[in-house]
Amino acid sequence: MASKNLFILTMLLLTQAEPSAWSGEIFRWLDQDGTPHFTDNPSKIPPAYRNRAEVLSIPDQPTQEEPIAPLDSFDLLPQTDSEGRDEPWWREQIQTWRSRKEEAALKLSEAEEKLGRLQFDQEAPSYRTAETNRLRQEVEKYKQEVRQAQEMLEIVLPDEARKAGVPPGWLR
Known about the structure:
By secondary structure, the protein is mainly α. Helix content is 53%, strand content 8%.
């Protein structure tokens, strides 16, 4: 009887937990220095970054551990592609372009926000025109940087990797 009561109490407590804690959602945001932060609780996101936080989903199924291969099946030399580049080199390329894309997207968002505020400002029209033009150029520059990084991540690097015979897992 006591174990039944304990089970019911446990189930009640679990169902009262915050949904994001068990729904597989992780929230990610970049601070003003470009440092990424993660949490599973949206209330822990600083108010200044809540509107820019990304929601990342975690698969519901637990990951299966791969069986450990016998020692004699491992290559003693590190694997490289046809150009002599190894997995860490490819992962660094992917990470570099992901960081560039995130940074450009953050700057784009900030420039668009400044431009929006400036367009509604009624003071100093001559200053506003020059500043508006400068911000529009900045917005276009950051849009181009985001497009370039996206192209590198989705087209150029995968194509180079395919040509060099890189295993697909190296680009993840």
